Amino acid sequence: MKIELIPYQKSWQGEFAFLKKRLEHLLAPLEPEIEHIGSTSVPGLCAKPIIDIMAGLREEAELDDAARLLEETEFFYMSVYNEQTPFRRFFIGAKNDAEPGEVIHKNRSCHLHIVPVKSDWWRDHLLFKDYLKRNDAARDTYARVKKELSMQEWPHGNDYANAKTEVIRNLLMEAKKSP
């Protein structure tokens, strides 16, 4: 599969705001903190046109409660990733009334990661986003790597994501050293 990257779109902020309101309603009993993360949250950065959202919960014990609250909604629970990242629940948001088996990239509105707010996952994702927003060189480095990788053919979208790991890790290390 080819990865479709497009230039930054101002409309992504509005799409996030709409999805945030929906998630605040659906997850209201858990009082989540909801953040826009990933490339669509960084002005000037190219991205796949899929909004990345992180919902933070007070306790890891609430993760399965969140999954239950999102049952039978447009957010499809991908429990297959629980073993790999047991402290996270991952969902694919569908648009166009797509069925679970049909949520290919063009039918996705978002990727939703639900994690505890006290986790490294939460802190690192916010730090990475904020670093790219304030550091043009870091943002440009990340964009260049993403564009180079998007030219390749990938068996699965996760393979593309894994190929970005080294540059993300390096930029995150820089961000942790940055004032």
TrEMBL record:
Classification via Pfam families: GrpB
InterPro entries: GrpB/CoaE, NT_sf
Name assigned to this protein: GrpB family protein
PANTHER family the UniProt entry points to: GRPB DOMAIN PROTEIN (AFU_ORTHOLOGUE AFUA_1G01530), GRPB FAMILY PROTEIN
